[in-house]
Amino acid sequence: MAAALPMELCFAAAARAVTPAPARPRQRRAGATVRCAATAPAPMGEKTEYRDGPLERAFMGLFARKMEKYATAKKKQQPPELETKKEKAVWDWDYESFVDVSRRVMVGRTRAQQQEAVREVLLSMLPPGAPEQFKKLFPPTRWACEFNAALTVPFFHWLVGPSEVIEVEVDGVKQRSGVLIKKCRYLENSGCVGMCVNMCKIPTQDFFTNEFGLPLTMNPNFEDMSCEMIYGQVPPPLEEDPVSKQPCYPNLCSMSTPSAPVCPKLQ
């Protein structure tokens, strides 16, 4: 979905720099298996298991609580007892509920409205003047592109799963400003082509390209759920992008239209 933000990145880096006290190793129950998400996402058709820590859940909660306002905006009037229900704390969210909020933001909105909602959520998480400061710190140079690619791997892990920096070609120049997401956690959990494109790919591309002034192109692979991010490459218009012709995942998406040649949410 949306990109991690510079201020949050600094906070996360500081939090992780603190060395925790040695902990007593946990005993694993017999028969229990945990897949190491850092290096081995599950094969296509299986779901990767993640063990999210407090910091990851805090990021999920921060984004989900912002998006919740847009998810409830389209709902009918709720009973009084629901209207006064206490807001969930940031650490009470998990990834499934984060994806559910994204799905509810999508319902009842056009493609453009979905993308605008994500843009407003991202802007609401930034301090005043942050886009201008980002442009000063990271002008669209090779160094800035490679630096942001390197940041993506550790700080997007909670959102998209394991990834690695790769070499790509931008305007005829080879540089390490590409990121290969091995199996996108957001796409894997939502199973929805429309959510991938409207709630993640397009808003993230537009946010970096237009708000931050650092071009970014994202190329999801719907056959294996991997995705290539290329910092420094200007994204094509949606009508020229291959994703605009992508059909639904009929067996994965609860909102799918199997008979349609193209996912209806892309139209």
Automatic annotation (TrEMBL):
It holds the Pfam family D27-like_C. PANTHER family: BETA-CAROTENE ISOMERASE D27, OS08G0114100 PROTEIN. Residues 158-240 form the Beta-carotene isomerase D27-like C-terminal domain. InterPro entries: D27-like (IPR038938), D27-like_C (IPR025114). This is Beta-carotene isomerase D27-like C-terminal domain-containing protein.
